[in-house]
Design a protein that fits this description.
By secondary structure, the chain is of the alpha+beta class. It is globular. The chain has helices spanning 2-10, 18-21, 29-38, 42-57, 60-63, 66-85, 91-102, 109-125, 129-132, 136-149, 153-169, 173-189, 193-209, 213-228, 240-254, 261-275, 281-297, 308-316, 338-348, 358-376, 402-415, 419-425, 427-433, and strands at residues 299-301, 320-323, 326-330, 387-392, 395-399, 437-439, 458-460. The longest helix is centred in the first third of the chain and has 20 residues, at 66-85. The protein has a 4-stranded antiparallel beta sheet. A 3-stranded antiparallel beta sheet has the order 1-3-2. Helices cover 62% and strands 6% of the residues.
Length: 469
């Protein structure tokens, strides 16, 4: 990991594509005029920065360099903050933000929303563990007050996300214990389903970082209860947002749970299968990923003293596989009604429900094709997710096992545009994520530009030995 970080840091001095240095080139006259007139005020400055960042993102296909695109959005934020602070290091800008967070008496609802938003954007653009370490507890206290007594839903949402990013930046037992009880109450008592969902996500990430086996198992059971009740347990009946958060949180925690997986499987499999009938594609897909994960985890390393009769037994039933230079066997059946499950998954690959729009049908079709293969062929090439997380043009992180995909999915909703910052600089994040860097052989300059639309950070790719023709 240290070699990867050293290599990544060596590339930080590379220049930004000239196309990105002149984003106004593709802005309409009306938009350019509006941006120019707004530059005289602080609010106008922020609007201009956001408009510029959006315009640049539409040109991502021209460079096909995910890292450069992400850094452009981050540098726009830094330029805006540093221009007002006059501090080239940026530390004074963060100090000013933290001072504003803690100065609640002289703040308004709109002021707190703006300050929390800047705090979040700063932590996404800069790895700042040392800068927030001494004040992290005070910051979490201030954010918790805004969640409990905030006067707007937006303030509570921003405060909850700020807590989560503070934990990701500075994962300590003290911070997790400080906010855990309050956030559990927020999940039950808050009026906003969006705040409930974000609190579920935050608690799951907190336990993913800091928690023993019992604590992880307890939160997994709580998330499962939310799933089984379709959100009614926490006053969010039939809320797809809350159920999806509970499903993704459960999956994230399952990837770090070291207890009896068979017991977990027996307790949760039926609940996930039931969620495949949901009207929400997000709920269906999250449930499907967890099912594929449980199938993958049903394989364990074969005992070295297995005799020929046992080996032949597992081979004859297709329950033995060689993976990562180890022999793995499936000693239990994850789903007792496997034929029914396969039929359900096969139906979902068609994406033909009339109430769905075209985008949802396409998402459902693509996701469940992979999930179906994962259930049919666990830990085999044809059953593995084939995606990659692009960091720079010369390397990426391969997502070729279900635990990797579930883990990354459970974190990406919080980090969003901050992936590069934490992958390159946050050693605890990279170590916990457990992904290995892979060299990218593709020459990005040879990729044809697409006329419009944002480049997806998640890319499916075919194995090198597979005929794509």
């Amino acid at each position: 990991m240290s070699n990867l970080r050293r290599k990544a840091l060596e590339h930080n001095g590379e220049g930004i594509n000239p196309k990105l240095l002149n984003p106004n080139k593709t802005i309409s006259r009306k938009a350019a005029s509006r941006a120019s007139s707004a530059a005289s005020s602080r609010a106008g400055s922020r609007t201009t920065s956001r408009a510029t960042s959006r315009q640049v993102s539409e040109d991502e296909w021209e460079t096909d360099d995910a890292a450069t695109v992400v850094r452009w959005g981050q540098d726009s934020l830094q330029d805006e903050m540093l221009e007002s602070s006059g501090d080239p290091s940026g530390k004074q800008a963060l100090k000013d933000i933290m001072d504003e967070v803690l100065d609640r008496k002289r703040s308004s609802v709109e002021g707190r929303e703006w300050t929390y938003s800047n705090y979040i954007r700063y932590l996404l653009a800069n790895y700042s563990r040392e800068d927030i370490y001494d004040r992290a507890a005070e910051l979490v206290d201030a954010f918790l007050r805004s969640i409990k007594g905030g006067r707007s839903e937006k303030e509570a949402i921003l405060a909850t996300r700020a807590i989560c990013l503070t934990i990701v930046t500075n994962p300590t037992d003290y911070l997790v214990d400080k906010c855990f009880g309050t956030l559990m109450g927020i999940i039950t008592d808050h009026e906003s389903t969006s705040v409930k969902a974000l609190a579920i996500c935050t608690l799951s990430i907190a336990r993913y970082y800091v928690g023993n086996e019992t604590e992880i198992r307890t939160l997994m059971s709580h998330n499962l209860d939310i799933i089984c009740s379709d959100g009614q347990l926490v006053g969010a009946g039939d809320s797809a947002e809350v159920v999806t958060a509970a499903l993704e949180g459960w999956g994230l925690l399952c990837t770090v749970y070291n207890g009896d997986i068979k017991e977990v499987n027996d307790e949760s499999m039926d609940a996930f299968i039931d969620q495949l009938d949901s009207t929400s594609v997000e709920v269906q897909t999250a449930a499907g990923r967890n099912i594929a994960l449980l199938y993958e985890l049903s394989y364990t390393v074969a005992n070295e003293d297995m005799d020929d009769r046992e080996i032949e037994f597992f081979k004859s039933r297709g329950k033995m596989v060689e993976f990562d230079e180890q022999v793995l066997v499936q000693k239990y059946q994850p789903c007792g009604r496997e034929n029914d499950l396969l039929n359900t998954l096969s139906g979902l690959t068609k994406g033909t429900k009339r109430h769905m729009n075209k985008k949802d049908r396409r998402t459902q079709h693509s996701a469940f094709q992979t999930i179906l293969r994962g259930v049919e062929h666990p830990l085999r090439t044809e059953g593995s997710p084939r995606q990659k997380l692009v960091v720079r043009k010369d390397y990426h992180f391969g997502i070729d096992e279900w635990w990797k995909l579930v883990r990354v999915t459970g974190l990406k909703s919080i980090l969003k545009g901050g992936w590069q910052t934490h992958l390159l600089h946050n050693e605890s994040f990279l170590r916990k994520l457990g992904l290995e860097a892979q060299s990218t052989d593709m020459d990005y300059r040879s990729v044809r530009s697409k006329p419009r639309g944002k480049k997806q950070r998640w890319q499916s790719f075919m194995p090198e030995d597979e005929d794509t023709g």
